[in-house]
């Protein structure tokens, strides 16, 4: 009877030991799988950041090359030399990681008033937010690029809504301007050149025209947005101070489309065609 009891106890102890071993093995396996997944996800996330940083560095290089080569117009030789040096340095740097980096760009184009500067870009967008003072506000509209029957608008708005707007529409070879306070039309003008110095109340270079921008925005915290920016192309410069005391300057003269390619181990990891507006300025 004792031998039978001893055997039963040994079977029970052995079963318990096997069960514990299975539990420990399962926990270890789960830990290994978790660690492997975490490492894999970490690598993927790193790649995302690597590509994002590459785009940012490339955009900044184009902005610096533009500033370096611009003197009323772009000196193509100086611009291409700058980008050529940057491209070689990036290629050498990426080679250490086994990555082949290449860039190529198209011609400079006059930008549309969309967010990315291209005609198919976001047409309604906020250029700068929370302003308390605008020192410079200049817009030059290309009337020949204006789509007939459409309206392009520049607006200042706050929490109450639109507090000032200038609506532009093509009329033959001219651009008709209509300024409102968001509700009432304050004044109108037909511009022959499309040049608007809004902050200095000048139009067509030297003619006086009261845009009422300074009157309607004085003492207010406001933002500036473009509406239907795909209607026409042109340039702009906006500079001033935000509510937190920071100065800003946003200027757009040209846009260029740049293709960035990154190949690793024979596999294409990145192929991005990005529009770069120049110069970007500080916001």
Write structural notes for this entry.
The protein is α+β, with helices and mostly antiparallel strands and 283 residues long. It folds into two domains: 49-110 and 255-280; 125-253, no CATH class. 33% of the residues lie in helices and 39% in strands. The protein contains three helices and 15 strands. The chain has helices at 2-69, 76-95, 213-217; strands spanning 99-105, 125-141, 151-158, 161-171, 174-180, 185-191, 195-197, 202-203, 207-208, 222-227, 234-242, 247-252, 254-264, 267-278, 281-282. Strands 2, 3, 4, 5, 6, 7, 8, 9, 10, 11, 12 and 15 form a twelve-stranded antiparallel beta sheet that branches. A three-stranded antiparallel beta sheet has the order 1-13-14. β7 and β8 (202-203) form a beta hairpin. The longest helix is centred in the first third of the chain and has 68 residues, at 2-69. The protein is elongated and about 65 Å long.
Mean pLDDT: 86
Largest sheet entry? 12 strands, antiparallel
- The structure class reads alpha+beta
Rg calculated over all Cα atoms: 31 Å
Helix content: 25-40%
Order of helices and strands: HHEEEEEEEEEHEEEEEE
Cα end-to-end separation: 91 Å
Uncertain spans, ≥5 residues at pLDDT below 50? Answer: 21-46
* Count of runs of 4 or more consecutive helical residues: 3
* E-strand count: 15
Shape: elongated
**Number of discrete domains:** 2
Strand content: 35-45%
Transmembrane segments: 12-35
Keywords: Membrane, Transmembrane, Transmembrane helix
């Amino acid at each position: 009877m004792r031998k039978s009891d001893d055997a039963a106890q040994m079977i029970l102890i052995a079963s318990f030991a096997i069960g514990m071993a299975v539990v420990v093995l399962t926990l270890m396996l789960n830990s290994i799988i978790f660690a492997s997944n975490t490492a894999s996800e970490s690598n993927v996330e790193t790649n995302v950041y690597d590509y994002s940083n590459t785009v940012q560095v490339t955009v900044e290089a184009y902005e610096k090359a533009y500033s370096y080569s611009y003197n009323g117009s772009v000196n193509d030789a100086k611009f291409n030399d700058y980008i050529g040096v940057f491209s070689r340095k990036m290629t050498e740097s990426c080679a250490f990681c086994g990555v082949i980096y290449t860039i190529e760009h198209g011609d400079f184009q006059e930008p549309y008033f969309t967010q990315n500067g291209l005609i198919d870009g976001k047409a309604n967008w906020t250029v700068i937010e929370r302003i308390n003072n605008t020192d410079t506000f200049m817009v030059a509209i290309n009337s020949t690029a204006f789509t007939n029957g459409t309206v392009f608008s520049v607006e200042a708005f706050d929490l109450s809504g639109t507090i000032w707007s200038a609506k532009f529409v093509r009329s033959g070879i001219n651009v008709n301007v209509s300024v409102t306070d968001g509700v009432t039309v304050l004044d109108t003008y037909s511009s022959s050149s499309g040049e608007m110095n809004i902050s200095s109340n000048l139009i067509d270079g030297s003619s006086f025209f009261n845009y009422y921008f300074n009157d309607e925005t004085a003492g207010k915290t406001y933002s500036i947005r473009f509406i239907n920016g795909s209607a026409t192309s042109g340039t702009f410069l906006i500079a001033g101070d935000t509510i937190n005391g920071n100065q800003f300057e946003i200027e757009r003269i040209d846009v260029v489309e740049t293709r960035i390619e990154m190949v690793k181990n024979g596999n294409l990891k990145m192929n991005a065609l990005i529009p770069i507006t120049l110069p970007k300025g500080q916001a």
